[in-house]
Amino acid sequence: MNVLYESNIRSLPLISRGKVRDIYSIDESKLLIVTTDRLSAFDVILNNPIPGKGIVLNKMTEFWLEKFANILPNHSTNIKPEDVVSKDELDQVKDRAVVVKRLRPIMVEAVARGYLIGSGWLEYQKSGSVCGVKLPKGLLKASKLDSAIFTPAAKAEVGMHDENVEFDYVIQLVGSELARRIRDITVDLYSRASQFALEKGIIIADTKFEFGIDSNGDLNLMDEVLTPDSSRFWPIDDYHVGANPPSFDKQFIRDWLESQDWDKKAPSPDLPMEIIRKTSDKYNEALSRLL
Question: In this predicted structure, what is the pLDDT of residue 156?
Answer without folding.
Answer: 67
